[in-house]
Amino acid sequence: MMKEKTFVFHNGVELPNIGFGTWQIPNEEAYAAVTMALKNGYTHIDTALAYKNEENVGKAIKDFDLPREEIFITSKLPAQIKGYNETLEAFNTTITNLGVDYLDLYLIHAPWPWDAIGTDHTEGNIQSWKAMEKLYNDGKIRAIGVSNFTESDIQALIDACDIVPMVNQIPFYVGHDQEDLLTFCEKHNIVVEAYSPLATGQTLNSPEIKEMAKKYGVTPAQLCIRYCLERKTLPLPKSTHEERIIENSQLDFTISPEDVEKLNAVEDVRK
């Protein structure tokens, strides 16, 4: 569920309505990038064991010296790790890397290993999810979810486990709105987080987006990130440049329903 400036998971946990993504930010740059994000008001930081930057993400959070409960930290179980004990071990590695006692959100990074996209790992995902349920029930994680899961991937967890995922983090941007998956998640009260809300920068050269951004007096990036919020998804923009980090969070405008429809009709820039 979306509220002004926050989203609320189906277990009542609230989180800021924009996150700072750290995908493709090397460990040596992550400290400065996360510090800049925190300095400019971001309190929702997204990382993953696979990003190989958890240590410096955690160090930046610790050195910034905000109370731990004021920072919302997400990390992810690597896509190739499937199984109960394997998940518990990976989680322990992550909280050690980050230097924290608990996570706010932990996700299965993908339903299949990245080198075997589309293969069936349903049983492994179920075992990983059961381990995450244990960590959640033990108070080690405040919320649990998935990433890159389709409707059938999520349904398999719902059918075999106790807890419905709180989140599905997926690529979501103008031209790639995954309408059916969005509807499925909404039906099950699963918050959709939008990673790559700028399609790794590729949406910014779209003539339609440029023209509409001019109409609203904002940048193409701001328009694309605001679009995610208008579609009730939680955007996770990332940058290592301070002016863009600031710009990406300045979203105090709304897009008219008519213009949202126009953006829905824009072709996927990655096709």
TrEMBL record:
The keyword GTP-binding does not apply. It comes from the Bacteria. It holds the Pfam family Aldo_ket_red. Substrate binds at residue 109. The keyword NADP applies. GO terms for molecular function: oxidoreductase activity, acting on the CH-OH group of donors, NAD or NADP as acceptor. Residues 18-267 form the NADP-dependent oxidoreductase domain. The record marks 76 as: Lowers pKa of active site Tyr. The active site is at 51 (proton donor). Keywords: NADP, Oxidoreductase. InterPro entries: AKR, Aldo/ket_reductase_CS, NAD(P)_OxRdtase_dom_sf, NADP_OxRdtase_dom. PANTHER family: 2,5-DIKETO-D-GLUCONIC ACID REDUCTASE, NADP-DEPENDENT OXIDOREDUCTASE DOMAIN-CONTAINING PROTEIN. Belongs to the aldo/keto reductase family. This is Aldo/keto reductase. It comes from Carnobacterium alterfunditum.
